[in-house]
From TrEMBL:
One of its GO terms (cellular component) is cytoplasm. The keyword Transmembrane helix does not apply. SUPFAM superfamilies: Acyl-CoA N-acyltransferases (Nat). This is GCN5 family acetyltransferase. It comes from the Bacteria. GO terms for molecular function: protein N-terminal-serine acetyltransferase activity; protein-N-terminal-alanine acetyltransferase activity.
Length: 181
């Protein structure tokens, strides 16, 4: 599958490359980011380097680096994975490096990827799950038009406590209706 480059007002999305490994290494070792995404796996630097060097060759997924329009620096990533052309669905995942959170990059990245999903790939549904402790992400997804579809109780650890996973989805007609507003 051809991996696209997408241009927005503030950001540019491009395929993840081998030279993104150092920035990704820093991102996967951010305690707050790991907490808010429910990441419990640990990675070696070699695993991250291998991932960045080869991810663009994987089928049924599109991993894009979030960069700004004036810089090619890896600021985070947005992923459309589990792409199923028969069911016409996919899963969405976004994570930003700490210095770039709260600036609107993630919102614009999601909107660009949803355009690709529905207009470029012809998908019918994009789903995601977000931890109940990640109120900022939940608000972003709701503002874009994602709807709550369910809850997996105590699905993730939050230190010594548990937290729920909120299942959300956006359908093609909901996306199109939001574009008219």
């Amino acid at each position: 599958m051809e991996k696209p480059t997408l241009q927005g007002e503030m950001i540019r999305l491009r395929p993840v490359r081998a030279d993104d490994a150092d920035a990704m290494w820093d991102m996967v070792h951010d305690p707050e980011g790991m907490r808010l995404t429910g990441t419990t796996a640990t990675f070696t630097r070699e695993q991250i380097a291998e991932w960045c060097a080869t991810i663009s060759t994987h089928d049924n997924r599109i991993d894009l680096a979030v960069t700004s329009s004036g810089s090619d620096e890896y600021r985070g990533e947005i992923v459309l994975n589990d792409i199923d052309p028969v069911v016409r669905s996919a899963n969405l995942r976004l994570v930003m490096r700490p210095a770039y959170r709260g600036r609107g990059y993630g919102t614009e990245a999601i909107q660009l990827v949803l355009g690709l999903a529905f207009d470029g790939l012809g998908l019918h549904r994009v789903g995601l799950d977000v931890l109940s402790i990640n109120s900022r992400a939940i608000a972003i997804y709701e503002n874009i038009g994602f709807r709550h579809e369910g809850r997996l109780r105590d699905a993730y650890r939050d230190g010594d406590r548990w937290c729920d996973s909120i299942l959300m989805g956006l359908l093609e007609d909901e996306f199109r209706a939001a574009q008219l507003d």
